[in-house]
Amino acid sequence: MNAFTGVAEGTLIRTILPSCSWSLTNVFHRWLTTLDHRLGENEDAQKTLTREQDGSEVRSVELERALAMGEPLWSDAPPSRRCATPRRRSTPC
């Protein structure tokens, strides 16, 4: 942030810098909120599908699909979210 402030020094951008900073903060906060919501939905779907397992191939494929959809979400999650929820992961927090 200091680098951005230094670049904006002596320009008209300096006057709107606080507003820009809060806007950037809000963008990241919204991204994290959306990601957390999607992770929660995927986790609920995985729990439901695991509970409904009856040995059929259809149920197995549905669960595998939910797991595959959750992996990219999980890898995008911030470390604080990954460490807050116990998971069976080979990678440490």
- List the uncertain runs: 88-92
Order of helices and strands: HHHH
Strand content: under 5%
What integer value in Å does the Rg equal?
20 Å
The number of distinct helices, counting runs of at least 4 residues, comes to 4
Structural class: mainly alpha
Shape: rod-shaped
The main β sheet shows up as: none
The helix content, as a percent range, equals over 70%
The count of DSSP E runs of length 2 or more, i.e. the number of strands, is 0
Distance between the termini: 26 Å
Report the average pLDDT across residues. 80
From the structure provided, what is the oligomeric state, counting identical versus distinct chains?
single chain
Q: Quick summary of this structure?
A:
With 93 residues, the chain is mainly α. It has helices at residues 2-8, 13-51, 57-76, 79-84. α2 runs antiparallel to α3 (57-76).
Q: What this model shows, in words?
A:
It is a single chain. This protein has helices at residues 2-8, 13-51, 57-76, 79-84. It has a domain at 33-78. Residues 88-92 have low confidence and may be disordered. It is rod-shaped, with a radius of gyration of 20 Å. With 93 residues, the protein is an all-alpha fold.
Task: Please outline the helices and strands.
Layout: H1 2-8, H2 13-51, H3 57-76, H4 79-84
Helix pairs in contact: 2-3
